[in-house]
From TrEMBL:
InterPro entries: AAA+_ATPase, ABC_transporter-like_ATP-bd, ABC_transpr_LolD-like, MacB-like_ATP-bd, P-loop_NTPase
GO cellular component, one term: plasma membrane
Highest rank taxon of the organism: Bacteria
The protein, known as: ABC transporter family protein
Length: 241
């Protein structure tokens, strides 16, 4: 049997592979405000893509549409054969729970739970026994160099430590895609660099693809490819560096 930290089958990046997630012609407005206009993005299995662009250009809206959190007004988003624009709310929430992992700028850990319980939570929600979930969670905390924080609550951790716990929680279900929205935005440059390095290393090892929204070039440097969003429109800049 493979361990919980092993790569998922088919998780090696390859430009010749079939895309895992494809968005084409996606538009979305909030009232009179157009947030996305004819946006497109293709994500291959195991690939790390940075989404960059000025404030208010539509990066988070694109991420939310790709993750099935926001429904576009127009366009098509296909994840592994499922059209997210027509999927039911039940189908979308099952996808988000089993196939996707999420990482935000801050505030995503449950303050009342220990770090170990926070990381075990997605597995518990998926029906895993407490013992198994916490054993896997402990492996992930070790992987992210925060094994010694297992019994602490998020309030007892520094910002960088909390983000590393959050990375463990985003990866613990072995998702096929991790959506990260400014995961280093609240950290100093040293801690930010450590978090993005650990996130991308752990994602590559486990075969997860990553879509990371960032305004920091040094964070985007960890990606395989860069997509820029400007005034709601996407432009693929190809390989980074
Ligand atoms: N829920 C919402 N209700 C109303 N307007 C929204 C909503 N979400 C986004 N917008 C608007 O859509 C546009 C794009 O916002 P979005 O958050 O996607 O940009 P962003 O590039 O992620 O910005 P930032 O870098 O500042 O986080 C902005 O004009 C924003 O005000």
């Amino acid at each position: 049997m493979t361990t919980d930290l092993s790569p998922r089958p088919g998780g090696t990046p390859s430009s010749s592979a079939v895309p895992l997630l494809t968005a084409s012609g996606v538009s979305r407005s909030f009232g009179p405000t157009p947030a996305l206009l004819d946006a497109s993005l293709t994500l291959y299995p195991g690939e790390i893509v940075a989404v960059m662009g000025p404030s208010g250009s539509g990066k988070s809206t694109l991420l939310h549409c790709l993750a099935g959190v926001v429904r576009p007004d127009e366009g098509r988003i296909e994840y592994d054969g499922t059209d997210l624009t027509t999927a039911s709310d039940t189908e979308l929430s099952a996808l988000r729970r089993t196939e996707f992992g999420f990482l935000f700028q801050f505030g995503q850990l449950v303050p009342e739970l220990s770090c170990l319980e926070n990381v075990a939570l997605p597995l518990r929600l998926d029906g895993e026994s407490r013992r198994r979930a916490e054993r896997t969670a402990a492996q992930w905390l070790d992987r992210l160099d925060v094994g010694d924080l297992a019994a602490k609550t998020p309030g007892e951790c520094s910002g960088g430590e909390g983000q590393r716990v959050a990375v463990a929680r985003a990866l613990v279900t072995r998702p096929r895609v991790v959506f990260a929205d400014e995961p280093t935005g609240a950290l100093d440059s040293l801690n930010g660099e450590r978090v993005i390095r650990l996130l991308t290393d752990a994602a590559r090892e486990s075969g997860a693809a990553v879509v990371v929204v960032t305004h920091e070039a040094r964070v985007a440097a960890y990606a395989d490819r860069e997509v820029v969003v400007r005034d709601g429109r996407t432009r693929d800049l190809g390989g980074v560096g």
